[in-house]
Every structure is written in C-alpha cells, then in structure tokens.
Design brief:
The chain has about 280 residues and is α/β, with parallel strands linked by helices. The chain has seven helices and eleven strands. Strands 4-5-6-7-9-8 form a six-stranded mixed sheet, with helices on one face. The chain has a five-stranded mixed sheet with strand order 3-2-1-10-11, with no helix packed on it. Helix 4 packs parallel to helix 5 (about 130-135).
C-alpha cells in the first residue's frame, strides 16, 4: 500500500511539472490565430499587377497535391499563364494530407510558371503536421493583401469554423479597407446551395454573422472551395462562389473549373472557366 501511495504522489508531482512547462492549445483555430499574429510568420505582401486597376486573376481550389486525383494544377497553370492572368489564389486543400513533399510540389509548379500566388488553408492541409508545413512553406493562414484597387481577405476555416478572434479580426480588416473592391476567400463555404454541413461551414451562427458582415462592409464576392464542383448565388448584394474543381476528384454532376476575375476600374466581373 505504501508503494502505491508513493507512486501516486510521484505521478501527481510529475503531471504538475509537465503542466507548468507545457502550453496546451485545445482550440486549433485559436492556436493558429495566435501563431499568425505572433510575429513569427511574416506578413503577406501586396501584389502589383501589370496594368493599374486593370488586370485579371484566377481563383481555384482543391488541388490536392499528392493525391492520385491531384494532377490537374500543372495543366491549369499552363492555360492561366497563356491567358495573361496576373496571379492565382487557391481556396485551400492545396495538398492531400499536409506532407512536406506535397507542399514542395505545390510550390514548385507555381515556380515553374513564374506565377504569383496566394493560398488559403483547407482541412486536408492540416492533416498530420500540416499546419507546421503550411506556415513553413506558405506562411499565414489568416491575412489580407491588396492588388491595386482590390482588397483581398483570406480566412482560415480548416476546422470548419472561424472562431471569435478571427471574426473580430475580419471585421476590423474590412472596416479599415479603402480599396474600391473587396473580396473574401476561405475553404469551407458559408453558403453552398441546399447541401448539409459536410459541404459547408459547420456553424450556421458563424455563417450568419459573416453574411451580415460582408453585406455591411460592401464586399463584392466571397469565394470558397471544399465542394469539388461549382455553385454561385447573390445574397444581400454579395456574390458567393464555390469553385473546387482544380482536381480529378470531381463530385457527381460537375466538371473541372476555376474562376477568372476581371478588374477594370470600378467594375469587377467573374467568369467560370470550364476545364480542360
């Protein structure tokens, strides 16, 4: 009995010591928020396209590098480059399971075509040690940048939610933006037709908060991926586009696609591009 008591006391002090030396983050979204704004990850730079306030860029999603169906990005980038688009933004699931080699392959393709790009984080990107690799190779998962007269905000919904801290940051970001056009991107859609939550943001409350915020701050478009197809609607003066077709894992009734955005002064137009 004495030995059991001694062992229990030693275990109690050992656990106490470990807790005093270890920071546990039970909420991964809050953990990534803190990482993003800790000063350890460099801010995301603006993009200066050729042609002031007159340029095109592409939004695509779900490239799933490393998957047998993740073999579409290279041919898409070849077409995008030939069309003269200034840069590409991905709405996440850039990799299939967050492995370092998959991030390197993703980076290498943009390097091959000398194409500027920015990336959101998706649920597949955080598998295993995915967040560690994402921030190492792609940087922040929550950020905003400007491309001439367009302000673009990228949100982290990789766990299916945004979290209070990120929603507060989003409001401050949109409030401070002075560009003519505003675009928000994330992985999980906050609207996706009549689909259940498996194809959209898990929190209906957060989705309602974001919809209200986007309308109040005159956001033009919100892009998302996750669903391997295409959906589009306008709600409250905001266009919601789901484009997850940059892969060979297309959901039934859909086909590969991306979206080309054309900026011409005060006008902002989108065009769904069927691929190939």
């Amino acid at each position: 009995m004495r030995y059991v008591l001694v062992a229990t006391i030693l275990l109690f002090f050992s656990v106490g010591f470990l807790l005093s030396c270890t920071t546990f983050e039970t909420d991964p979204v809050t953990g990534r928020f803190n990482d993003n704004f800790s000063g350890e990850i460099a801010p995301v730079a603006d993009i200066d396209p050729v042609g002031t306030n007159n340029f095109k860029f592409v939004v695509l999603s779900d490239t799933h590098m490393g998957s047998p169906g993740g073999n579409v990005l290279e041919s898409m980038l070849a077409r995008i480059q030939s069309n003269g688009d200034a840069f590409v933004i991905s709405c996440g699931d850039n990799t299939d399971n967050g492995e370092e080699g998959q991030y390197l392959a993703y980076q290498a393709l943009f390097g091959k075509f000398n194409m500027a790009y920015r990336s959101a984080i998706g649920n597949h990107d955080i598998f295993f040690e995915g967040w560690k690799n994402f921030k190492k190779f792609l940087g922040r998962s929550m950020y905003s940048f400007n491309a001439d007269n367009v302000h673009i905000t990228v949100l982290d919904s990789a766990n299916g939610v945004f979290g209070e801290k990120q929603l507060s940051w989003l409001e401050e970001d949109l409030k401070a933006a002075t560009q003519t056009h505003k675009i928000v991107l994330t992985h999980y859609p906050i609207w996706n037709g009549n689909f259940t939550s498996v194809f959209k943001l898990a929190s209906e409350e957060e989705a309602a908060i974001v919809k209200d915020m986007l309308s109040r701050y005159s956001v033009n478009i919100m892009f998302a991926g996750h669903y391997h197809g295409y959906n589009e609607i306008e709600l409250g003066g905001v266009k919601y586009i789901v484009t997850g077709g940059a892969n060979d894992l297309i959901d039934p009734g859909n086909h590969q696609n991306y979206v080309e955005v054309t900026v011409n002064g005060n006008s902002l137009d989108t065009r769904k591009v069927a691929f190939p």
